[in-house]
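User: Some background: our group keeps a shared notebook of sequences we're curious about, and every so often someone picks one and asks for a predicted structure to add to the entry. Today it's my turn. The entry only has the sequence so far, pasted here. Could you supply the structure so I can complete it?
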Amino acid sequence: MPPRSLRSLPPEGAQPPRGGSSEAAMNTRWHLALALCAAWGLLGCGGGGGDGGTGGGGSNMAEFVFDCDIGGVNAVMNMQVEAVSSSGAVWGPGPDPQITGVIGNGSFIYYTAGNLASPTAQYSFRGENQYADFTMLNGNDRFRVEWIVRAPGLTIRVNPFGPGPTEYDCALRSSRRL
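Assistant: Of course. Here's the predicted structure to add to the notebook entry:
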């Protein structure tokens, strides 16, 4: 049975502001993420053929396990990533046109979901592209994070829009295609 799509889990809360140089920075970061996926041996995690990324035997979903240092406390983060290829519709002629085709435009949307557990707290998260919303499972805390991909792992920037962003480093422990 194929894994459940992360697209059915929309991120909570408002989306971060978009446009201008921040849009270019987002695209650059996520192209680096795609390169990092390839470096991790998950060449299919960036999507695949014209059938939504599952063509050619490749997978558009991957699972990563990270060891994180959260202010001196060890934590384990399990993250699933789904890369969905963006596309555009081709319309037929006439006053009442029909869709005659779909063309990939070369960009991807990355959906993330997972959990982070330490001896003192447990969180679940879900997100889109480089942002995710965290919810504390044994409390009421909710906050936004930004993923910053840095080989051989990533940095979690908590409250990237303020007040006082804080960064925590995570090292990749394992990865696999789903």
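Suggested note for the entry: The two ends are 11 Å apart (CA to CA). The first helix runs from residue 20 to 39.
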